[in-house]
Amino acid sequence: MTFKDIFKNSFLEGYAQISLTPLAIAACLLISCLIGIYIFAAYRILCRKSFYNKNFSISLIAISVITASIILAVQSNVVISLGMVGALSIVRFRTAIKDPMDLAFLFWSISCGIICGAGLAIIAVALSVIMSVVIWIFNALPVAKAPVLLLVTATGNDGEKKVMETVGKHCRWSNVKSRTFSHEQLDLVIEVRSVDEGAMASSVMAIEGVTSVSVLAHDGEVTF
Fold it and tell me: Is the domain of 28 the same as that of 97?
């Protein structure tokens, strides 16, 4: 017996194949699918986006089941596990995740698939319940009102002074983010926090020399 045979036998003996019955495989994939559906429902309820992405939410179910099937294949045969590592190492995903919560739901789905594939479905269920409760609680907590952007187009030399005086009457805090000058026209972008943006915009529009007023909300971070 050569050294190659000794190494091969000792290596494979440490990773003996695990016999998986069709019933066990079906039960594992079914539990992964049910947990994925639960994650799908949690994302649908807790998602606060203006544009709901149905394809992304459906992919959460598919990712959970696919990950569970990969773990089942990996733990059943060491050769398959090595080949799986090599195959997945060359796969690159180009889809950019812009929302951190989407990334959290993706990891949630992948983790549940891994846990179910390892035969620890109770941990996956507990993880799902705890995650949904934590996200719901912190999602319901009140936060500071996000500022809005006030876009003003005015003419005249003292247009900015009049606008800022009027804005100061409707809000305690304001910050000029941009000034654009073109001949006798001035374009202002002002970040403000106001209780009544409509009344503020109407007051600014009533100023002599102001030709247009726009109020825009943004989804950026809120500065406390």
Answer: yes
